[in-house]
Design goal:
The structure holds 3 protein chains of 3 kinds. By secondary structure, chain A is of the alpha/beta class. In chain A, 42% of the residues lie in helices and 11% in strands. Chain B binds chain C through residues 1, 3-5, 7-8, 11, 42-43, 49-51, 53, 218, 220-221, 225, 253-254, 329-333, 335-336, 359, and chain C through 58, 60, 62, 66-70, 72-76, 83-86, 89, 92, 94-98, 115, 119, 121-122.
Chain lengths: 430, 752, 159
Amino acid sequence: MHEQHQILYKHRFVEGIKGIDVYRNHGGYEAFRKALTMTPEAIIDEVKLSGLRGRGGAGFPTHIKWASVPKNTDQEHYLIINADEGEPGTAKDRDLMNNLPHLLVEGCLIGMLAIRARKCYIYIRGEYAEPWQNVQRAINEAYRAGFIGKNVLGSGMDFDVYTHLGAGSYECGEESALISSLMGERGMPRLKAPSAPLYTVSGAWQKPTPVNNVETIATVVPIINMGGAEYAKIGYGSPRSRGTKLTSISGHVKKPGVYEITLGTPMREVIYDIAGGIRDGHTLKTYIPGGSSTGFMMPEPLDYPMDYEGVVTAGAMLGLGSGGLIVMDETTPIVPVTKRLVDFYHHESCGKCTPCREGLNWLAKIYDRILAGGGRPQDLDLIWDICDNVRGKSFCGLGEGAIVPVMTSIKYFRDEYMSYIKSGRDLVMV
Amino acid sequence: MSENDKNTEIHTAQTNTEEQANAPKESTDQQAAQQTIAEAGAMPASATTAQEAEAAGRVADPQPTAPPVSSTQADGGARTVEDTPRSERDRTPAEKADAVKVQSDAEAAKAAGVEMTKVTVDGVEVEVPKGTLVIEACFRAGADVPYFCYHPRLTSIGACRMCLVSVELEMFGARRESIFTCCTVPVAEGMAIKTRTPEVKKAQNGMLEFLLANHPLDCPICDRGGECPLQNMTVAYGPPTSRFIEEKRHFPKAYPISDYVVLDRERCIQCMRCTRFCEEISGDGQLALLNRGSSTEIGTFFGHDFTSNFSGNTIEICPVGALLSRTYRFAARPWEISSSDSICSKCGNGCNVALQTRLGELVRVNGRTNEDVNEEWTCDRGKFGNYYVNDESRLKHPLMRRADGALHPASWDEALAAVAERITRTKAEFGADAIAGIGSTRCTVEDNYLFGKMLRALVGTNNLDHRMLPHGFEPMQTTIAEIEHFKTIVSVGMKLDWDQPIVYLRVFKAYSKKGANWIKADVVDNTVTEALRAGGADAVLLLPHHLPQDQIDRAKKLCASTGAKLNVLLPDCNSWGAARAGILPDRLPGLTAFREGRAHLDSFWKTPLPTASGLDSDGIFDAVSAGRVQMLYIMGSDPATRFHDTEKARRALEAAPFVVVQELFLTETAKRADIVLPAASFAEKDGTFFNIEGREQKIKQAMPVKGDARPDWRIVADLMGRLGTPVPYFSARDIYREYNRSIPKAEAVAAR
Amino acid sequence: MSDFFEDVKQIAREVVAPFKGLGITFGQLGERKTTISFPDYRRVMGVRARWRHVLNRYDNGLEKCIGCSLCAGACPSNAILVVADENTDEARFSPGERYAVRYEINMIRCIYCGFCQEACPTGAVELKDVFEMAESTRHDLIFTKEMLLVPDPNRERVD
């Protein structure tokens, strides 16, 4: 078994790590002190050396995002943290915010230094009341300890960190929709390049506003602490996927939970060793590697490295995703599972673009009908064609992500659909 | 009710189902296409007759021999790539206007020396200004791209996903081709755009199938049917049948959101044109999207009324029948309407409108594009306020006060003879100056010119005025269109969006899009002074006509000192024209002073004109009360309610021995008249209006004259004939020509 | 000689001819008559006969016509006039929002092509076999909605 590095979760289980004193006793805010002595370019270089990529799902290199923020403007910059974690199966940010809120706050401070921002907004999803309380408490403590506020640590710089609770929309996890929502507008995605300027140049309130995931920004702390080059040594897979990834493993495994997994660890080890394997007497039927929008995958192949590239080569449609591994054993009926996912995306669609609004509505109604016993043989082709019409045509990633589980389920579990259509019952009887 | 209500819908839905379930997959495209015309596109939009409808259907029909594109599309019945593009005739007027606007913008940009980019659209190379959207390049190349949410005057959002085209461009170092919504992507040098590839066809097909999934297909009872972009696009690009067999989304039909606008949320396709209009153009933001996902609907906040003064425009830009006019509701089908280009009569902005009539009634007023005046917008007053021309209470016969002291219907011959006789008698007994005339700011230039000519040349008096306020005239120093370029805009004493709606749209455009300062004040006070001082020559001051004279004088001085432009905005549709036509006691046509114009007019009208200045409207009413004026001839004006001192006007009207009134309605003034002559409204006659900026615009007869009424100029011309001068006027154009020649040429004036 | 016989034959034929002709006449006397005594007797029309229009109703008595004007649009001789209005809950004429407040067909302009029936989305207008439409003035031949509508079945029952 590959060794699992504990980078973020080094002090995860320390008693009282939520409080600033314990956190500082374990080396807290040292990275920030170190970063204060560095130039913004040096911080970005360090991140570049580490090979850190966005942990929210898309895997965009963080240093490129930060470097694209204009340097020589007198405009105010803002750092926005995307804590609107809504992907079914994903709970890593909640765990991080609940247990290591100061890690997030420290990461925000370093991120602000890197992009010359003085204000940071943490956009937390509306349902995350508890993580919000923890983060807000940590911010308050950091204010009192002088890490945030006026003239921080004698540097002459003023920092502010604000939290903003969303109103419970999955769509607001999309960066541009998050920006709209943060600005008080309807949480709908906005035009992106090439139609509009990058939001790192002109985002919220027409100011440069890079948006980073909670885990990404928290990872910056150990990177500064240990040095980018050191961090880049961690990982067993592709040279482009370095470091560790928080993964929430759920489903029919013996030890579900949030784990810090070194990128490149084989998927078989993740499921069978780290998560303790499938519950006794059952076998792996299918799993979703990283949040529901990455789609179902079959037990074979399983020996591929779990990193950004490996998952794609193994056949996932949208890559590593946000790190929500859902494992299902052979008792799981796939059609109701897919219907549940379709219902989720249908409910969360913002309604801006036609394919997502009408396509998902249509899919939801077809699934309702199939489950009610009214399926027709041509429905499978119809579902496939609807997905095909949504793919590549919806405005943002929600539509793209929504059809992946549908398409993969039809691809791999056609016989279960046919069973429903023919007999109105599931193949799997629990 | 709902049981039956659903009958028609279910009827179509069932057709779909049966088609889907029973028809073999091999059913030819032709059959399927006929199905489309029968249900989805019950009436191909913009077709004016059934024959045209058939023709339009035929254009959209694929060749029966052409094979389906791919197996997945076979049951969806995708159209073939070889489809001919839609002909010009198959487009709605709105679509044509959009394309024209794009073309003219591109040409203007080219003329202004903007950097051009070369792209190819379907193999046609076009040059477009840098930063142009791909869809505009497509229009310029003559390619037909379907779209719903795109509008040339609104920001692009790419919501409807209908305008998908295949774009080939350099991306990340490689030349790749992918599908984009062309209303959001700006052109780049060397782009190759293809609008008719199989992938694009499939995408367009799919989007329309999505849009129609929840669309009720009640085209036969929808007011938009026949000029509906969704109908048009479905015939041209859509799938022949729908595979949607589930229950459609349901909302209560026809939900009135204001006195003028009715909302049908079932038909809405969430293109957000109306919400963007309210945010970006009219600036009130009263319409918004409510809820999310498939239950997204358009609505007002907390169910408030949609009270915007520009709500009517959302009806016009709605690409489906979701927002509809309550006044036009079920009044006509688009192919039954006859439309004539005219000018709105409700205020002085002079919006270009199309008066649309059916069965001799005005059914709808639509905006026309004029970039210099109203762009393409109208206000609600213009759109819904012009229905007075249909009013049953309008005068239809001449009325004469008989022996019993009441007004009774009379024939034209009787009435005109009485007026002519009275004029001759009064002139003989009391002299020409015992007769006075009041012209109108709501009659055309021709009416006013002929009225002035009659009183001056035939009666021989200068007692002639049209003003209801004791003010002089200030021509606007800028045009309406120029207002949007000023950096500081000061408006005083007005609710600009109600009093001068089109000026308001320009001001709001300057304010919201060009970052101008907009200061609103009640009176010309220190705030105004400071703002104008700060603005310097880049400021404009907007004043209403009704401000006290001292305020206007102060503003004038202020503007002269700071270099700001002063615009005094007149209220009526022909306020400026009445003055131009010479309905002033001391001015001749063309606002010529007596000294400059008399010699010319003496010879032109072939009669010596009275030399002294006449009485103005105040003077006339004083003189009537004093008995010096024995006869009052009022054309199209209502001093009993509109004069600044109504008491004085009413006293004078009671006191006058003889009052003639030409009017549309039995107004307070007309009730006090001895003879009332019914006049034609602006929709029933030809003529010319001058708007507040002095722009000359023609109105055209749109409908037959109500009852026995006559255009004002014809009444005056008849009277002139009875007064002894046979007059050679057969049309308003004759009078307009004469009016133009009656203004002395500038050089002739200078030589004198 | 032969000429003589020919002449005799000819004369005989001419003498017989009227009787032959009359024979057909008298022979037909016994046959069934083609003409009928019209006002007293009426011929049964073919099933596809297209004559006078009717406006149909639903079983519950509501008019099928929704006043959409498609028949007027399809009419090649421009013989149909439809003026629509909005149904209210107090005054309901047809299902849905719209009904025809005026529906007129000019029967002397009509060419009985049946396009209106084709175009009708609800099957409201139908060309039936009633052809007796003679009137003495042109104005009387403009059939109004009241004349075209079939009787309300419910109304009859109530009476």
